[in-house]
Amino acid sequence: MPVIAEKALNRKEFACSEGLRKRDGNDPAGGVKYSCEPKMQTRADQDRSRGVTRPDAREYRRVIGRFPTGVTVVTCCDPGGEPWGLTASSLTSVSLEPLFLLVCVGKGSRSHDVVVAGEHFAVNVLGADSVDLSNRFALADPGDRFEDVDYRTEVTGSPVLDRASAWLDCRIAQLHDAGDHTIVVGEVLGCDADESTEPLVYHAGTYRSLVPA
Ligand SMILES: Cc1cc2nc3c(=O)[nH]c(=O)nc-3n(C[C@H](O)[C@H](O)[C@H](O)COP(=O)(O)O)c2cc1C
Known about the structure:
The protein is α+β, with helices and mostly antiparallel strands. The protein folds into 2 domains: 3-54, no CATH class; 68-209, Pnp Oxidase, Chain A, CATH 2.30.110.10. It is built from 4 helices and 16 strands. Mean pLDDT is 88; it is low at 1-9. The structure holds flavin mononucleotide. The site of flavin mononucleotide has 16 residues, from strand 7, strand 9, helix 3 and helix 4.
Protein backbone atom coordinates (compact mmCIF):
# COMPACT_ATOMS: atom_id res chain seq x y z
CA MET A 1 0.00 0.00 0.00
CA PRO A 2 1.77 3.19 -1.08
CA VAL A 3 2.18 6.07 1.36
CA ILE A 4 2.11 9.54 -0.16
CA ALA A 5 3.51 12.11 2.26
CA GLU A 6 3.21 15.27 0.14
CA LYS A 7 0.51 17.61 1.39
CA ALA A 8 -0.38 18.51 -2.15
CA LEU A 9 -1.63 14.97 -2.61
CA ASN A 10 -3.91 15.11 0.42
CA ARG A 11 -6.99 14.41 -1.70
CA LYS A 12 -9.61 11.65 -1.66
CA GLU A 13 -8.40 10.31 -4.97
CA PHE A 14 -6.26 11.25 -7.90
CA ALA A 15 -5.17 9.72 -11.16
CA CYS A 16 -1.56 8.71 -11.64
CA SER A 17 0.31 6.67 -14.23
CA GLU A 18 -0.56 3.37 -12.52
CA GLY A 19 -4.25 4.14 -12.24
CA LEU A 20 -6.61 5.73 -9.74
CA ARG A 21 -5.21 6.28 -6.23
CA LYS A 22 -7.81 6.40 -3.44
CA ARG A 23 -7.13 7.71 0.07
CA ASP A 24 -7.09 4.84 2.50
CA GLY A 25 -6.61 6.72 5.78
CA ASN A 26 -3.71 8.33 7.57
CA ASP A 27 -0.33 6.79 7.94
CA PRO A 28 1.13 6.75 11.53
CA ALA A 29 4.25 8.43 10.16
CA GLY A 30 2.18 11.50 9.20
CA GLY A 31 1.57 10.74 5.58
CA VAL A 32 -1.63 9.72 3.85
CA LYS A 33 -2.21 6.12 2.82
CA TYR A 34 -3.49 5.47 -0.67
CA SER A 35 -4.57 2.29 -2.36
CA CYS A 36 -4.19 2.03 -6.09
CA GLU A 37 -6.92 0.88 -8.47
CA PRO A 38 -5.13 -0.13 -11.65
CA LYS A 39 -6.36 1.89 -14.63
CA MET A 40 -8.45 0.14 -17.29
CA GLN A 41 -6.10 -1.15 -19.94
CA THR A 42 -7.01 -0.18 -23.45
CA ARG A 43 -6.41 -2.65 -26.30
CA ALA A 44 -3.46 -0.47 -27.35
CA ASP A 45 -1.97 -0.67 -23.79
CA GLN A 46 -2.31 -4.47 -23.85
CA ASP A 47 -0.73 -4.69 -27.31
CA ARG A 48 2.19 -2.52 -26.16
CA SER A 49 2.80 -4.52 -22.99
CA ARG A 50 2.70 -7.81 -24.96
CA GLY A 51 4.96 -6.40 -27.64
CA VAL A 52 2.23 -7.07 -30.25
CA THR A 53 2.34 -4.98 -33.43
CA ARG A 54 -1.02 -4.40 -35.06
CA PRO A 55 -1.17 -5.12 -38.81
CA ASP A 56 -1.28 -2.10 -41.08
CA ALA A 57 -3.65 -1.74 -44.06
CA ARG A 58 -1.10 -3.24 -46.50
CA GLU A 59 -0.61 -6.34 -44.36
CA TYR A 60 -4.37 -6.69 -43.82
CA ARG A 61 -5.01 -6.51 -47.59
CA ARG A 62 -2.32 -9.14 -48.23
CA VAL A 63 -3.92 -11.52 -45.76
CA ILE A 64 -7.63 -10.88 -46.46
CA GLY A 65 -6.82 -11.16 -50.17
CA ARG A 66 -6.24 -14.90 -49.63
CA PHE A 67 -10.01 -15.19 -49.19
CA PRO A 68 -11.33 -15.85 -52.72
CA THR A 69 -14.41 -13.93 -53.81
CA GLY A 70 -16.58 -13.61 -56.86
CA VAL A 71 -16.65 -10.39 -58.86
CA THR A 72 -19.72 -8.25 -59.48
CA VAL A 73 -20.62 -4.96 -61.07
CA VAL A 74 -22.95 -2.95 -58.82
CA THR A 75 -25.15 -0.71 -60.96
CA CYS A 76 -27.65 2.03 -60.31
CA CYS A 77 -28.87 5.24 -61.92
CA ASP A 78 -27.20 8.54 -61.10
CA PRO A 79 -29.37 11.53 -60.08
CA GLY A 80 -29.73 12.44 -63.77
CA GLY A 81 -31.05 8.94 -64.57
CA GLU A 82 -27.84 7.87 -66.35
CA PRO A 83 -26.46 4.35 -65.76
CA TRP A 84 -23.67 4.07 -63.18
CA GLY A 85 -21.58 1.10 -62.15
CA LEU A 86 -18.56 -0.02 -60.16
CA THR A 87 -16.78 -3.33 -59.78
CA ALA A 88 -17.33 -4.82 -56.32
CA SER A 89 -16.24 -8.09 -54.73
CA SER A 90 -17.71 -7.34 -51.30
CA LEU A 91 -21.05 -9.01 -52.03
CA THR A 92 -22.38 -11.06 -49.11
CA SER A 93 -25.70 -12.77 -48.70
CA VAL A 94 -27.22 -11.60 -45.40
CA SER A 95 -30.76 -12.85 -44.78
CA LEU A 96 -33.47 -15.07 -46.25
CA GLU A 97 -36.38 -13.49 -44.36
CA PRO A 98 -36.39 -10.79 -45.64
CA LEU A 99 -34.13 -11.37 -48.64
CA PHE A 100 -31.13 -9.18 -47.79
CA LEU A 101 -27.67 -8.93 -49.32
CA LEU A 102 -24.91 -6.39 -48.74
CA VAL A 103 -22.16 -4.68 -50.66
CA CYS A 104 -19.53 -2.36 -49.19
CA VAL A 105 -18.79 0.84 -51.10
CA GLY A 106 -15.64 2.87 -50.41
CA LYS A 107 -16.38 6.39 -49.20
CA GLY A 108 -13.46 7.73 -51.21
CA SER A 109 -14.88 6.54 -54.54
CA ARG A 110 -16.93 8.68 -56.92
CA SER A 111 -19.49 5.89 -56.84
CA HIS A 112 -20.16 6.19 -53.13
CA ASP A 113 -22.40 9.22 -53.12
CA VAL A 114 -24.19 8.09 -56.28
CA VAL A 115 -25.02 4.67 -54.82
CA VAL A 116 -26.08 5.84 -51.35
CA ALA A 117 -28.18 8.71 -52.76
CA GLY A 118 -30.29 6.32 -54.79
CA GLU A 119 -33.13 4.03 -53.78
CA HIS A 120 -32.15 0.98 -55.81
CA PHE A 121 -29.16 -0.91 -57.17
CA ALA A 122 -28.49 -4.13 -59.03
CA VAL A 123 -25.73 -6.65 -58.48
CA ASN A 124 -24.38 -8.19 -61.70
CA VAL A 125 -22.34 -11.34 -61.05
CA LEU A 126 -19.56 -11.73 -63.61
CA GLY A 127 -18.63 -14.96 -65.33
CA ALA A 128 -15.14 -16.23 -66.14
CA ASP A 129 -15.21 -14.52 -69.56
CA SER A 130 -15.80 -11.04 -68.12
CA VAL A 131 -12.41 -9.85 -66.83
CA ASP A 132 -12.76 -6.99 -69.32
CA LEU A 133 -16.01 -5.84 -67.67
CA SER A 134 -14.44 -6.03 -64.20
CA ASN A 135 -11.48 -3.89 -65.29
CA ARG A 136 -13.69 -1.45 -67.15
CA PHE A 137 -16.03 -0.86 -64.18
CA ALA A 138 -13.09 -0.48 -61.81
CA LEU A 139 -10.78 1.66 -63.92
CA ALA A 140 -12.52 3.49 -66.76
CA ASP A 141 -13.92 6.96 -66.39
CA PRO A 142 -17.43 6.52 -64.92
CA GLY A 143 -18.96 8.28 -67.93
CA ASP A 144 -17.42 5.72 -70.33
CA ARG A 145 -18.13 2.52 -68.43
CA PHE A 146 -21.35 1.63 -70.27
CA GLU A 147 -19.99 2.42 -73.75
CA ASP A 148 -20.74 -0.59 -76.00
CA VAL A 149 -22.02 -2.54 -72.98
CA ASP A 150 -25.45 -4.08 -73.55
CA TYR A 151 -27.84 -3.78 -70.65
CA ARG A 152 -31.53 -3.73 -69.87
CA THR A 153 -33.69 -3.03 -66.85
CA GLU A 154 -35.59 -5.62 -64.88
CA VAL A 155 -37.48 -4.73 -61.67
CA THR A 156 -36.04 -1.55 -60.17
CA GLY A 157 -34.80 0.30 -63.24
CA SER A 158 -31.13 -0.28 -62.35
CA PRO A 159 -29.01 -1.44 -65.33
CA VAL A 160 -28.72 -5.23 -65.65
CA LEU A 161 -25.78 -6.24 -67.83
CA ASP A 162 -26.66 -8.73 -70.59
CA ARG A 163 -23.34 -10.53 -69.97
CA ALA A 164 -23.94 -10.98 -66.23
CA SER A 165 -24.08 -14.64 -65.25
CA ALA A 166 -26.52 -13.73 -62.47
CA TRP A 167 -28.29 -10.55 -61.40
CA LEU A 168 -30.05 -9.40 -58.25
CA ASP A 169 -32.19 -6.26 -58.36
CA CYS A 170 -32.46 -4.54 -54.98
CA ARG A 171 -34.11 -1.76 -53.00
CA ILE A 172 -31.74 -0.08 -50.53
CA ALA A 173 -33.03 -1.23 -47.14
CA GLN A 174 -30.26 -0.04 -44.81
CA LEU A 175 -27.01 1.93 -44.87
CA HIS A 176 -24.39 1.28 -42.19
CA ASP A 177 -21.36 3.45 -41.55
CA ALA A 178 -18.30 1.17 -41.42
CA GLY A 179 -14.93 2.92 -41.31
CA ASP A 180 -13.90 4.06 -44.77
CA HIS A 181 -16.77 2.13 -46.38
CA THR A 182 -20.58 2.22 -46.22
CA ILE A 183 -22.33 -1.12 -45.95
CA VAL A 184 -25.29 -0.99 -48.32
CA VAL A 185 -27.96 -3.56 -47.45
CA GLY A 186 -30.32 -4.33 -50.29
CA GLU A 187 -33.64 -6.12 -50.24
CA VAL A 188 -33.72 -8.41 -53.26
CA LEU A 189 -36.80 -7.69 -55.38
CA GLY A 190 -35.85 -9.81 -58.36
CA CYS A 191 -33.04 -12.14 -59.43
CA ASP A 192 -32.07 -14.72 -62.01
CA ALA A 193 -29.02 -16.70 -63.05
CA ASP A 194 -27.57 -18.48 -66.06
CA GLU A 195 -26.51 -21.69 -64.38
CA SER A 196 -24.25 -22.82 -67.20
CA THR A 197 -21.70 -20.00 -66.72
CA GLU A 198 -18.43 -20.53 -64.84
CA PRO A 199 -17.72 -17.83 -62.22
CA LEU A 200 -14.98 -15.22 -62.26
CA VAL A 201 -12.92 -15.51 -59.09
CA TYR A 202 -10.71 -12.86 -57.49
CA HIS A 203 -7.90 -14.09 -55.24
CA ALA A 204 -4.73 -12.43 -53.94
CA GLY A 205 -5.17 -9.51 -56.34
CA THR A 206 -5.53 -11.77 -59.40
CA TYR A 207 -8.46 -12.96 -61.50
CA ARG A 208 -8.86 -16.71 -61.55
CA SER A 209 -11.20 -19.08 -63.26
CA LEU A 210 -12.48 -22.43 -62.05
CA VAL A 211 -12.35 -23.70 -65.64
CA PRO A 212 -9.36 -26.10 -66.00
CA ALA A 213 -6.76 -24.54 -68.34
C1 LIG B 1 -11.92 -7.13 -58.24
C2 LIG B 1 -12.28 -5.79 -57.64
C3 LIG B 1 -13.14 -5.74 -56.58
C4 LIG B 1 -13.52 -4.50 -56.01
N1 LIG B 1 -14.41 -4.48 -54.98
C5 LIG B 1 -14.83 -3.29 -54.48
C6 LIG B 1 -15.82 -3.24 -53.46
O1 LIG B 1 -16.33 -4.24 -53.00
N2 LIG B 1 -16.20 -2.03 -53.02
C7 LIG B 1 -15.67 -0.86 -53.51
O2 LIG B 1 -16.06 0.23 -53.06
N3 LIG B 1 -14.72 -0.88 -54.47
C8 LIG B 1 -14.31 -2.05 -54.97
N4 LIG B 1 -13.39 -2.10 -55.98
C9 LIG B 1 -12.83 -0.85 -56.45
C10 LIG B 1 -13.82 -0.16 -57.34
O3 LIG B 1 -14.27 -0.92 -58.41
C11 LIG B 1 -13.15 1.10 -57.91
O4 LIG B 1 -12.30 1.64 -56.98
C12 LIG B 1 -14.19 2.09 -58.12
O5 LIG B 1 -14.82 1.77 -59.30
C13 LIG B 1 -13.58 3.46 -58.10
O6 LIG B 1 -14.13 4.17 -59.07
P1 LIG B 1 -15.05 5.41 -58.79
O7 LIG B 1 -14.23 6.41 -58.04
O8 LIG B 1 -15.34 5.84 -60.17
O9 LIG B 1 -16.24 4.96 -58.05
C14 LIG B 1 -13.00 -3.30 -56.54
C15 LIG B 1 -12.12 -3.35 -57.64
C16 LIG B 1 -11.77 -4.59 -58.20
C17 LIG B 1 -10.86 -4.61 -59.39
